[in-house]
Structure formats: structure tokens, C-alpha cells
Amino acid sequence: MYSVIEMRAFELFSPPHIVTLLLFFITCVVLVYYRQQIAAYKTFIKWTLFSILLGCVISLQFWLVLSGEWNVGHLPLQLCSFSTYLSLYLFLKNNNKVFNFLFFIGFLPPILSMITPDMSHQFPHFRFIRYFLQHSAITLSVLYFILFEGYRVPKSAILSSYVILNIIAVPIFILNLLLGTNFFFLMSPSLESKTLLTFFGSGMMYYIFIEIAAILLLFLSYIPMGWLQKIEKKTMRSGEEIGEIRN
Fold this sequence. Notes:
The structure is a single chain. This protein is mostly helical. Helix content is 69%, strand content 0%. The chain is built from nine helices and no strands. Helix 4 crosses helix 7 and helix 5 (96-106) packs across helix 7. The radius of gyration is 20 Å and the shape is globular.
């Protein structure tokens, strides 16, 4: 389970992979559908997600060091790492602007990362469990903030999040050049397995496709949020109309 060389035979859409994805999506559906019944346990859910995220970040670094696998490329500076840090921050302190950015990097991207993971280890290896547990917890945290903390995202946050993402990418790119790393996969797609980035080509075309994909993901991510706010506005207007009729 903790071996460096064993269980390095991850297969895309293998039974363990499919079961893991199904468990994640079922959890999301349960969280949304039974949100009113679950609301009484929101404090438990909050600190459970907080503990999972923090535990995943720390345990991976411990495993890498103890197994002799750690190198500078394993610094927690990937996009999912930033999603984790922002989630942990929001569990401790409310901040609408922080959530606006977290929503776009922590809702859909982790799901896509689980569908085509940057993974070489198979279940039940620690790396497999840790990877899917952390990415699941990121998206579930975003759902938690929406369902139980009342966070909503304005449409204008699409542009601001795109700008922030590109601003962050600049020092990350420079760091990659200096350290020979591949944070944010800005230098190349994953080397461990085939992901969606594998189809983006190389050179300048790779960066063009990354920018296009980022824009598409931002707009796609906002679709359910836009629907939610439209439904809430309709419900609010209906309630006001009923109130006026009664008066």
C-alpha cells in the first residue's frame, strides 16, 4: 500500500477508477438532494472536509520524504494545491472574493482531474487513495460553501478569475524555468499518465489550447451557478407576489 515500486499499474476507467468516480458523484448528489436534512450536521461536514484536505497535503509530503521520493517538483504548488489552501482558508474565515476564485478552480477542474488523473498507482495504494480523496474533498468543499454557507458567484467573477489565474501562472512559470519543475503543467502535460492536456500538443500551440481550455472551463463552471441564482430569483419574486396578493 505504501511501496514505491508496487501497484504502479493504473488503468484509466478500470473497475477501481469507475467505482471511485461513482462514489464521488453519489456523494455529491446526496449532499445536494438531502441538503436540508443534512444541514443539522454541517459543522461535522465542515471539519471533516477540513481534516481530509489538510491530512492529504501533509501525508503526501511525509510519504514522499520517508520513501526517498521527494524532490523539488513535489512542492505543493499545483492548481489543486491552491484550491486546497483556499478551501482551508474559507473554512476558517468568510471571504466572498476568495470563494469567487475558488469556485472556478475548485469545482470543475478537480472533477476533470479525477476523470483523467495524473496517476500511475492503482488502488489500494496510498497515492491512489490520497489523490482521489483530496480532489473529491475540494469539489465537495465548494458544494459545502454553496449549500450551507450561502456563497454565490457573480458573472463578473469569470473575467476576474481568468485574470487572477494568469497572474498566478507568471511566477509559477518562472519558478518552473528556474527549478526544472512542471507546476500547473505549464511546461508539458503529465508524464505519468495520459490526461486531457495530452491532446493539447506542444510548443506555442500547447499554451494557446491551455488558454482556450481555461476560458471554456470558466464559462462551463458558471452554468450551474447561473441556473441556481435564476431559480432563487424566481422563487423570491413568486414569494413577493404572493405576499402582495395577501396584503
